[in-house]
C-alpha cells in the first residue's frame, strides 16, 4: 500500500458539507464497518471523499492481528503531521481493533490523533467528532481528545435511512467477537465475546442491500458457522432452530436468505471445524445460491501443535467434519490458513502439516509465519523456531499449496460450468472476472454488460490460482 501525498486542502464555501475519508486496513469485517460508518456520517449531512487531502475528518479503521498491520497504521497517521500543522481544524481518528488494544497509548505515539474508538462504539462516531470540535472551541490551546472503548454495550447495527454504497458485492457482518481461546489470537481481546445478530434484522439488511443493487452477499464472522450459539431458544410455538438445543443456526439463516429475490450468490467467511454440522452441510446442498467454497482453517497438521494452539480439534476430528461436508456436497472446495513456526513446532510437526495439506487438497492456502502478539496466551511460550526456519517452511508450504491447487484446477479443464460474472477486469480490456459455484476465479473474454449475470463457460486453461475459459452457449441477458 502506497502512502498518500498530502497537500493543502482547497476550502470551498463555508457552508459546504464537511468531508470524510476512511482508510481501511485488515479484514472484510473492517470493510463492512467502514461502509457503515460512512453511512452514518452521510445521514448527518457529511460527504465522503476519495481525496484524503480534501477531508475534514480522516478515520483509520485498523487491524491488530499482526504487528505489521499496526505499524502500517502508524506510518499512515504520521503522514498527516504536516497536514495537521497546516490545518489544525482537521480531525484524525483511529478506530477498530488497534484502537481497542492500545487505547490512549496511541496519543503518545501519534500526537496528531484526536479520536480513539473501539470495535463496538462505531455508532457514536458522529457525536464523538462533534465532541472533539466542541472541546477545541472551549480550550483551543489544549489537545481535544476523545476516547471510547469497551464491550459493555451492544453495537447499533441499524442501517435505517442510510443510502447503500456497497456495490454488486456486499458484506454482511452477522456476529461480532469470538468465544474461542486460540492461544495465538488477539481477536477476543479486541472484539469481545460472541454477539450474534438476530435473524430478522439480518434478513432485513440483506433485503435492503439487494434492493439497492447487491447481487452477492458475503456473511462475515470470526467463526461464522457458530452464529446463533448465543441466541435464545425460541419460546412457545415459534419454530425451533437447527442449532444446539433448538437455537437458531447458520443453516437457518442460509435457508432464509435463499428465499430473497435478486440474490445471486451467498458466501461465507470464516468457518471453524468444531461448528461444522450435518444441518449446515444440508443447507449448502439444498440452497443453490450458496457457494460451495468454505474457508475452513486447519492452521496445522500436527495434533501436538493444534493442542498448544488450543484449536479445539485434532486432525482426525477435522477429517470427520470435512467428511460431513463432502457427503452432502461432493464438489465442495476448501481453503485453509496455516501458521508455520509456532512455538515448539518440530521438523516432524511441519512434515505433518505438509501431508495434511496434500491429503485434504486445499484449493486456497494462506500461510503466515508465527509472531507473538501481546495479551495472547502464546506470548508466554518461547518463540523458539528460528526466523530462517520460519521463512523456509513458509516458502515450502506456499509451493506445496500451489502444486496441490494446480492439480485440483486441472480437473476442471474441458468442463462446461455456470459462472457468475462479477466485473470487468481492471487492467485488461474485454476481459471479465467470474467465479464458479465452488469459489474458483475464472477469466473470460466478453462484453462488460455481462457483469452481474450467470453464464456458461467452457474451461480451457488454468494456473494454480484461477481458471480461464470462453463463453460456451448463448449469452444470458441481465435480469430486469
Note down, in words, how this protein is organized:
There is one protein chain. With 480 residues, this protein is an alpha/beta fold. Among the domains are: 19-148, Methylthiotransferase, N-terminal domain (Rossmann fold, 3-Layer(aba) Sandwich), CATH 3.40.50; 164-291, Transcription Regulator spoIIAA (2-Layer Sandwich), CATH 3.30.750.210; 416-471, OB fold (Dihydrolipoamide Acetyltransferase, E2P) (Beta Barrel), CATH 2.40.50. The protein is built from 14 helices and 19 strands. A hairpin with a 4-residue loop joins β16 and β17. α9 (250-258) runs parallel beside α10 (278-286), α10 runs parallel beside α12 and α13 (347-360) runs parallel beside α14 (387-410). It is globular.
Shape: globular
- Could you say what the CATH architecture of one domain is? 3-Layer(aba) Sandwich
| Percent range of helical residues | 25-40%
User: Which segments are poorly predicted (pLDDT under 50) over 5 or more consecutive residues?
Assistant: 1-15
Name the assembly state: single chain
The CATH homologous superfamily of one domain corresponds to Methylthiotransferase, N-terminal domain
Per the CATH scheme, the topology name of one domain is Rossmann fold
Largest sheet: 6 strands, parallel
The helix count comes to 14
The count of DSSP E runs of length 2 or more, i.e. the number of strands, is 19
Amino acid at each position: 500500500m502506497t502512502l498518500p501525498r498530502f497537500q493543502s486542502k482547497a476550502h470551498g464555501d463555508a457552508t459546504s458539507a464537511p468531508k470524510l475519508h476512511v482508510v481501511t486496513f485488515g479484514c472484510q469485517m473492517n470493510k463492512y464497518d467502514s461502509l457503515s460508518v460512512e453511512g452514518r456520517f452521510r445521514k448527518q449531512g457529511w460527504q465522503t471523499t476519495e481525496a484524503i487531502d480534501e477531508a475534514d475528518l480522516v478515520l483509520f479503521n485498523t487491524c491488530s492481528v499482526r504487528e505489521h498491520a499496526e505499524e502500517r497504521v502508524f506510518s499512515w497517521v504520521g503522514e498527516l503531521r504536516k497536514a495537521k500543522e497546516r490545518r489544525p481544524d482537521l480531525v484524525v481518528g483511529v478506530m477498530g481493533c488497534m484502537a481497542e488494544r492500545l487505547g490512549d497509548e496511541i496519543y503518545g505515539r501519534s500526537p496528531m490523533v484526536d479520536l480513539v474508538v473501539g470495535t463496538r462504539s462505531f455508532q457514536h462516531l458522529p457525536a464523538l467528532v462533534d465532541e472533539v470540535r466542541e472541546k477545541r472551541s472551549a480550550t483551543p490551546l489544549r489537545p481535544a481528545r476523545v476516547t471510547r472503548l469497551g464491550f459493555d454495550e451492544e453495537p447499533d447495527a441499524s442501517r435505517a435511512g442510510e443510502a447503500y454504497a456497497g456495490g454488486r458485492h456486499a458484506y454482511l457482518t452477522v456476529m461480532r467477537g469470538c468465544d474461542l481461546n486460540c492461544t495465538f489470537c488477539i481477536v477476543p481481546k479486541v472484539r469481545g465475546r460472541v454477539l450474534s445478530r438476530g435473524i430478522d434484522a439480518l434478513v432485513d439488511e440483506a433485503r435492503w442491500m439487494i434492493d439497492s443493487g447487491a447481487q452477492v452477499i458475503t456473511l462475515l464472522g470470526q467463526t461464522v458457522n457458530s452464529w446463533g450459539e448465543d441466541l435464545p431458544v425460541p419460546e412457545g410455538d415459534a419454530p425451533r432452530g437447527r442449532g444446539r438445543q433448538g437455537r437458531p443456526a447458520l443453516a437457518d439463516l442460509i435457508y432464509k436468505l435463499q428465499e430473497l429475490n435478486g440474490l445471486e450468490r451467498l458466501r461465507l467467511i470464516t468457518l471453524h471445524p468444531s461448528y461444522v454440522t450435518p444441518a449446515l452441510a444440508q443447507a449448502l446442498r439444498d440452497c443453490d445460491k450458496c457457494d460451495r467454497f468454505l474457508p475452513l482453517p486447519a492452521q496445522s497438521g500436527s495434533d501436538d501443535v493444534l493442542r498448544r494452539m488450543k484449536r479445539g480439534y485434532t486432525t482426525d476430528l477435522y477429517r470427520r467434519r470435512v467428511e460431513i461436508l463432502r457427503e452432502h456436497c461432493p464438489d465442495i472446495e476448501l481453503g485453509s490458513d496455516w501458521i508455520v513456526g509456532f512455538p515448539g513446532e518440530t521438523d516432524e510437526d511441519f512434515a505433518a502439516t505438509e501431508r495434511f495439506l496434500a491429503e485434504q487438497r486445499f484449493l486456497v492456502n494462506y500461510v503466515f509465519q508465527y509472531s507473538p502478539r501481546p495479551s495472547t496466551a502464546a506470548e508466554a511460550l518461547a518463540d523458539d523456531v528460528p526466523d530462517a526456519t520460519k521463512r523456509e517452511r513458509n516458502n515450502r508450504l506456499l509451493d506445496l499449496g500451489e502444486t496441490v491447487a494446480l492439480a485440483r484446477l486441472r480437473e476442471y479443464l474441458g468442463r462446461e460450468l455456470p459462472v457468475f460474472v462479477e466485473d470487468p477486469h481492471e487492467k485488461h480490456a474485454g476481459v471479465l472476472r467470474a467465479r464458479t459455484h465452488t469459489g474458483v476465479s475464472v477469466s473470460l473474454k466478453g462484453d462488460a454488460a455481462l457483469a452481474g449475470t450467470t453464464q456458461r463457460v467452457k474451461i480451457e486453461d488454468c494456473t494454480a490460482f484461477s481458471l480461464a475459459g470462453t463463453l460456451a452457449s448463448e449469452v444470458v441477458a441481465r435480469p430486469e
